[in-house]
Design goal:
Elements (H helix, E strand, L loop, with lengths): L3 H12 L2 E2 H10 L5 H4 L12 H4 L1 H17 L5 E6 L5 H9 L10 E6 L3 H10 L6 E3 L11 E6 L8 E6 L2 E9 L5 E7 L12 E4 L1 H17 L1 E10 L10 E4 L2 E3 L9 E3 L2 E2 H10 L3 E7 H8 L1 H8 L5 H8 L4 H4 E7 L15
Parallel strand pairs: 2-3, 2-5, 3-4, 5-10, 10-14
Antiparallel strand pairs: 1-7, 6-7, 6-9, 7-8, 10-16, 11-12, 11-13, 15-16
Helix pairs in contact: 5-6, 8-9
Bound molecules: S-adenosyl-L-homocysteine.
């Protein structure tokens, strides 16, 4: 039977070792056998869970945040877009929470950027009545009106490359084969002018993430709107080292095991995204922790108002500073007319 691991090995035998981005791109996005293409990876029966799957208040707060930004921008006709919508849960919660905002739904049309046929089918079921249009990439999002864009755990799934400091200087970390035909990490020459660093240091970079961010910022600057990105990551110019991680059935595993059957992600470098946004003429808010973002937006007040104690534990999980609330960060990138609430807390680190 054809397996993704088999395809990766055949590729290496023919073309030599591959960079990590090529490996991630094949493992996650191969058109027939890629991890995201072949399954719904979310929830207890899958490999990992996400904020919208933990609490309906996540999508609701994001909906209210975006509707508020839209109102303050004058309430124009606009396109709502989500990048990597998973099961469509966040968007369904966002749309429910905003249905009474005057004219919001009537002036919106809905766009979903999603490569997975399995997840597109789930999104179609959950969002019936809203007639979403699907896109393979951000490039085909419409260009004729402001964009309100939300992306939760999307940027962390985009492929990265890694440079490693060796005895002979910076080299690129690659995936190759050992004598017994097992996948292993190795290194090869890397013509990048990186500065001095201790032996073994790892520097991550993501041309794909940079390209997507660049394309979105150019759109926001030209058409107006805002991108709200939430992901686990860091916001510092200090390199963090190796953040590539693999998860199989809710447990960490080696990134080269379970090829095509494990989720592969890396920490999002928010400082790099902010740099691109400012250079494109956009305003940057944050990043702040998910805890600071949700609490500044008033998740506590909404939870009390709903008088539904069964929702407490989910909100607690999303705002726990030692867990998801501290690991995940939120950032808004917008044109001058669009700014988001949720970023003005003094404790927003
Ligand atoms: N946002 C959802 C799902 C996160 S999982 C949630 O919070 O629950 C990552 C999502 O991004 C999945 O929907 C996956 O299919 C999609 N995805 C991954 N790589 C993608 C790419 N290159 N282009 C478009 N969608 C992608």
């Amino acid at each position: 039977m054809e397996t993704l691991e088999g395809l990766v090995k055949a590729h290496i035998r023919t073309h030599g070792p591959m960079d990590i981005a090529t490996y991630m791109g094949m493992a996650l996005g191969h058109p027939r056998l890629g991890y995201y293409i072949t399954r719904d990876p979310l929830g207890a029966a899958g490999d990992f869970t996400t904020a919208p799957e933990i609490s309906q208040l996540f999508g609701e707060m994001i909906g209210l945040c975006l509707a508020d930004a839209w109102l303050r921008a004058g309430g124009p006709t606009f396109h709502m877009a989500e990048l990597g919508p998973g099961r469509g849960t966040l968007m369904a919660d966002l749309l429910r929470a905003t249905r009474h905002v005057p004219h919001f739904h009537e002036r919106m049309d809905l766009h979903l950027v999603e490569t997975s046929p399995a997840l597109r089918a789930k999104q179609k079921d959950v969002l019936t009545g809203h007639e979403p249009r699907w896109h393979d990439t951000v490039e085909t999002l419409p260009a004729d009106a402001p964009l309100l864009i939300v992306a939760n755990e999307f940027f962390d799934a985009l492929p990265i490359r890694q440079a490693v400091m060796t005895a002979v200087g910076w080299q690129e970390r690659v995936v190759g084969l050992d004598g017994a035909e097992n996948l292993i990490f190795g290194t090869r020459a890397l013509p990048l002018p990186l500065g001095p660093a201790p032996l073994g240091s790892i520097h991550e970079f993501s041309p794909v993430r940079e390209h997507v961010t660049q394309a979105l910022c150019a759109r926001l600057a030209a058409q107006g709107g805002v991108l709200l990105a939430i992901d686990y990551g860091h916001d510092t110019s200090r390199p963090l080292g190796d953040t590539l991680q693999a998860v199989y059935r809710h447990a960490p595993c080696h990134p080269l095991s379970h090829t095509g059957n494990a989720d592969l992600t890396s920490h999002v470098d928010f400082a790099a995204m902010a740099h691109i946004a400012r250079a494109s003429g956009c305003r940057v808010q944050g990043s702040v922790t998910q805890k600071a973002f949700l609490e500044t937006l008033g998740i506590g007040a909404r939870l009390s108002a709903l008088k539904a104690p069964q929702l407490d534990s989910g909100v607690q999980r999303l705002t726990d500073g030692k867990g998801m609330g501290g690991l995940f960060r939120a950032m808004a990138i917008g044109s001058s007319a669009f700014s988001c609430a949720g970023f003005d807390s003094l404790s927003g680190t």
